[in-house]
Design goal:
disordered C terminus, 2 domains, Helix Hairpins
């Protein structure tokens, strides 16, 4: 078996990762494969189309390799993480709305010492200024958490899109990676 060189222009590393679309060329890394895709896309799709025209066009199943199964499993794990992040974002929006309501209610109080803050299971008597500061700190923490969750969500979506492209390229309509209840507010 001859050692292939990475197909990315200017790279002299061995191409140990094979293009799953055509199987003809190799890459040293996922980054080089992605970078080279614009150049390789036409050749790869042409070969993939002619190779799968017989089986996939007639509805025959395409063989699932170990690498394909790993990609499907990774997509599933990422999708679960994405759903968890989106649930946290929804509850975060609710928490932010509650904090906004609390800030408005504190401003409406006429008595300076009428506020109580719940910490755990206990209510503490605090001044209005202390309550306002407490709410402001909680809103700042919630905003930071929301920003972090949105960044995680963006990264998960990017990873899922790469896997989706690879899997749809090979399996076409024989695989469904769409989630009907999944919403993206990008």
């Amino acid at each position: 078996m001859s050692k292939r060189q990475c197909a990315f222009s200017g790279c002299d590393q061995p191409g140990t990762k094979t293009c799953t679309g055509c199987g003809d060329i190799g890459y040293c890394s996922k980054e080089h494969q992605i970078a080279h895709w614009k150049t390789h896309k036409t050749q790869c799709k042409q070969k993939h189309k002619s190779a799968s025209a017989g089986g996939a066009a007639r509805g025959e199943e395409i063989a699932v390799t170990w690498e394909d199964q790993q990609r499907i499993n990774e997509f599933s794990r990422l999708n679960l993480r994405l759903q968890n992040v989106e649930e946290q974002l929804v509850s975060g929006r609710s928490a932010t709305a509650n904090l906004d309501d609390a800030a408005g209610d504190i401003e409406m109080l006429l008595d300076d010492d009428a506020c109580k803050v719940k910490i755990g299971e206990v209510f503490w008597d605090v001044s209005n200024e202390e309550a306002e500061e407490f709410v402001k700190q909680r809103k700042d923490k919630q905003a930071a958490k929301t920003t972090e969750l949105q960044e995680q969500r963006t990264q998960l979506v990017k990873q899922m899109d790469v896997l989706k492209a690879m899997l749809y390229q090979k399996f076409g309509k024989q695989i469904n990676l769409e989630n009907a209840d999944q919403t993206r507010d990008e």
